[in-house]
Amino acid sequence: ARIRLRLRTATVAAAGPAIMRCGDVELDPLTRRVTVAGAEVDLSAREFALAEALISHAGRALSREQLLSRVWGYDFDPGSNVVDVYVRYLRAKVGAARIETVRGVGYRMVP
Fold first, then answer.
1. In which element (H, E) is residue 20 found?
2. Lower CB count within 10 Å: N or C terminus of the chain?
3. Structure pTM?
4. How far apart are CA 84 and CA 8, in angstroms?
5. Does domain 18-109 have CATH number 1.10.10.10?
6. For the residues of 21-59, what is the DSSP string, one character each?
C-alpha cells in the first residue's frame, strides 16, 4: 500500500500544472486544449508549443532564438522566419492583441 501511494503521488507530481492561464486564454497541457474567452481553439502541434512557451513566460519578452530553441529545438536554422510565421498563425487564432511584439527583442503574451 505504501509503494502504491508513493507511485501515485509521483505520477501526479510529474504530470505538471493542470491548466496554464494568461488573461482569458487557458491552456491545458494534459489534454492539449486551448480556450480563448471560453471558446475552444484548434491549434497545430507547433502552435500549441509556441502558445505554451509564451504563456509559461507571460509578461516577459522571449527572443526569436529562445522560441526557436524551446519550440523547434537547437538544430533549427536561426536565420529562418519560422517564428514570425507561427506567431502570425497564433495571433489569428487567439487574437492579435494578446501577443505583443517587442521591437528588437521578440514576443510576449499580454495578460
1. strand 20-22
2. N
3. 0.80
4. 41
5. yes
6. EETTEEEETTTTEEEETTEEE---HHHHHHHHHHHHTTT
Assign 73 to helix, strand or coil: coil
Rounded to an integer, what distance in angstroms lies between the CA atom of residue 2 and that of residue 100? 49
| Grid coordinates belonging to 50 | 509556441
Cell 533549427 sits on residue: 76
Alpha-carbon distance values, 105 to 4, 63, 66, 79, 101 (Å): 48, 5, 10, 15, 8
- Please state the domain extents for the chain: 18-109
Report the interhelical angle of 82-94 vs 45-56 (nearest 10°): 80
How far apart are the C-alpha atoms of 48 and 5, rounded to whole Å?
A: 33
